[in-house]
Automatic annotation (TrEMBL):
<dbReference type="InterPro" id="IPR006015">
    <property type="entry name" value="Universal_stress_UspA"/>
</dbReference>
<dbReference type="InterPro" id="IPR014729">
    <property type="entry name" value="Rossmann-like_a/b/a_fold"/>
</dbReference>
<comment type="similarity">
    <text>Belongs to the universal stress protein A family.</text>
</comment>
<feature type="domain" description="UspA">
    <location>
        <begin position="154"/>
        <end position="291"/>
    </location>
</feature>
<dbReference type="InterPro" id="IPR006016">
    <property type="entry name" value="UspA"/>
</dbReference>
<feature type="domain" description="UspA">
    <location>
        <begin position="2"/>
        <end position="140"/>
    </location>
</feature>
<dbReference type="Pfam" id="PF00582">
    <property type="entry name" value="Usp"/>
</dbReference>
<dbReference type="InterPro" id="IPR051688">
    <property type="entry name" value="USP_A"/>
</dbReference>
<protein>
    <submittedName>
        <fullName>Universal stress protein</fullName>
    </submittedName>
</protein>
Length: 301
């Protein structure tokens, strides 16, 4: 499995590396650690400035020190690790290297140096998650008042029966999860609205059928996950906004990771679930794993 860890030396980047170090893949991991520097020499005439050589030296020392820290931090993975330092725009360089190494997963912090607050998603993370062709794990540090025990993994798996969410389940099964790990399979059902007049009418009967179908699929999935996760459960939630419902339920269950596919079919087609993925990615206060495992599978077949 080819994994790319994008880091900039920030606290969020360190949290991402710590999270990655806890993952135990069933197959060997080839890990590439990338640090990108947006060098001021890209501004015309900078290299001729007296301060530039000293800045370059200090930046090299900073990145080297950071990579040494990560080397020790990532040792539990037992993987072959390659460290890369390049100049350029961060998102562009991350996506380019991911293509070059045929990455299966990109891991990075939510905000980095450009953070405006814990909830907001940084522009680099947003761009990478949106444009990457492989799975992306955006790591957010847990809040100080989180009820989750240290080292405990609580996963909310957003599932709608689509190809991408089914492949996300398969991707989870590529890892050995600890006994303390729990997975809640969450299916969200929205009630269709029939606009017969100026007053919308909820089709409750259809909604009951959808809830029943979602519950059955969730229970079947729990049986599948029982082989790799000690505590799988299934839940069906209803709500007007799928993304908000996923985030709310993840918060209620004290989840520290949301896993979901990047696209799906659902009631209103692929566009809707694509927008749901973006909404969860941008508004969740917990880590989010956007699975594109189905794309890799399609490429192989």
């Amino acid at each position: 499995m080819n994994v790319l860890l994008a880091t900039d030396g920030s606290k969020d980047a360190i949290h991402a590396a710590q999270f990655l170090s806890t993952l135990q893949c069933k197959e060997p991991i080839s890990l590439t650690v990338l640090t990108t520097t947006y060098a001021p020499d890209r501004i015309g005439g900078t290299q001729s400035q007296a301060w530039f050589p000293e800045w370059r030296k200090l930046e090299y020392e900073r990145v080297t020190s950071h990579h040494n820290l990560l080397r020790d931090l990532l040792e539990p993975l037992g993987s072959k690790t390659h460290f890369v330092h390049v100049d350029g725009a961060a998102a562009h360089e991350i996506l380019k290297l991911a293509e070059q190494i045929d990455a299966d997963l990109i891991v990075l912090g939510a905000c980095g140096h450009s953070a405006v607050g814990r909830i907001l998603l940084g522009s680099v993370s947003d761009s990478v998650a949106t444009h990457a062709t492989c799975s992306v794990l955006i790591v957010r540090p847990e809040s100080e008042d989180a009820n989750t025990e240290p080292g405990t993994c609580r996963i909310t798996l957003a599932y709608d029966g689509s190809e991408s969410s089914t492949a996300a389940v398969d991707e989870l099964q590529h890892f050995d999860w600890p006994q303390c790990c729990s997975v809640n399979v969450l299916s969200v059902v929205t009630a269709p609205v029939l606009l017969l007049s100026e007053y919308p009418v909820l089709l409750d009967q259809h909604n009951e059928v959808a809830v029943d179908e979602a519950r059955k699929k969730g229970e079947q999935l729990v049986a599948t996950l029982a082989g790799c996760v000690a505590q799988p459960t299934a839940q069906v939630a209803t709500g007007e906004h799928i993304g908000e419902t996923i985030i709310a339920n993840a918060a209620e269950s004290d989840s520290n990771l949301i896993v979901m596919g990047d696209t799906g079919r659902g009631f209103l087609g692929k566009l809707l679930l694509g927008s749901v993925s973006k909404y969860v990615l941008r508004h969740s206060t917990t880590s989010v794993w956007i699975s594109r495992h189905h794309r890799k599978t399609s490429d192989v077949t």
